[in-house]
Amino acid sequence: MKHTFRIFLFAFLLVQSSAMAAPTLQSLEDSLKKTGPKIFKGKDPDKIAANLKFIELLRQALEMEGAFDYPFDSLNFMAHMNAPDNAFRIFNWNLPKDDGTHGYYGFILVDQNELESSKKKKDRYKYKNRYVLYELHDQSDMIRSPELATLNCDKWFGALYYKIILNSHKGKNYYTLFGWDGNTPLSWKKVIEVMTFGKDGQPIFGEEMTFQVKNLSKRRVIFEFKAELTMTLKYEEKNKRIVYDILVPEVPGAEGMPQFYVNSGAYDSYVFKKGKWVYKPDQDIRNKKDKKDDQYIPPAPGG
Question: How many C-beta atoms lie closer than 10 Å to residue 119's C-beta?
């Protein structure tokens, strides 16, 4: 009898110990908060090792029940934002390398019950596994003609996102993303990217030729300009348009050399019409600029 009791007691203590050791969203957030800043400090091998650990911790957190609604407020060194219709959340960060370039990483946590673009409302709650997690893999250096390429999570044009716009046409949702890319020590980039969802629920980047620029069509728009320049790329909610700086060479003879491209003081725009972002030239935004419209400024090392 004593032997049986000891076995029972041992099993009970083992279960209790395991329960106490099981991670929670709070404990994982604490670990992420400690690990994350290491991605921005030291030499590449140290940053890469910290990043791998961070990815695994974040994946573990995002696969837990309740992750979609958990704020992750203390992780201020990375971007985390919800789509306007709450259909997904993006978690996104950069790894600054010793040579002045950047790698980009991220996850998209999708609430399949909120994806109404390819589903009738009566079908919204048919999913047994409501939340699906997708990891983003930056393949920017391997993408030829990136403004014309259709991409996915495994082949992604890496950027640090800072804005999501939702538009709809014929029952389909278009999520327009603004992103920043540190590119090189000489030139930075900004990206306008349109994300949709396929019939299988997976994110697609540049599924359609969404951008109409005069007689040209593009799947995404990429601006490249002088490093450290603050380029305007913003969405005017009131006018329902994307407004951006017209970039010009700062010195004669620098045409085609983006490291010398700067603001001209003039602006163009895109307006969403019938599922397309249509180019509109020469927009006057004087006296309309607001401090809240300032575009993304990359974080200093460490946050």
Answer: 18
Sign of the CA dihedral with 55 first, then 159, 231, and 97 last: positive
Contacts of residue 11, defined as CB under 8 A and 6 or more positions apart, other chains included, come to none
Supply the DSSP symbol for 87: S
Strands 211-213 and 276-283: parallel
15 inside domain: no
47 close to 40: Cβ distance less than 8 angstroms: yes
Chain segment 220-274, per-residue pLDDT in tens: 999 999 999 999 999 999 999 999 999 999 999 999 999 999 999 999 999 999 9
Beta strands in 32-171 (DSSP E): 79-82, 88-96, 102-111, 131-137, 160-169
Per-residue burial over 167-183, b = 16 or more CB atoms within 10 Å of its CB, e = otherwise: beeeeebbbbbbbbbbb
Handedness of CA 6, 8, 14, 19 (dihedral sign): negative
Counting the structural domains of the chain, the total is: 1
**Residue 56 in domain:** no
271: domain range? 78-293
Rounded to two decimals, the pTM is: 0.86
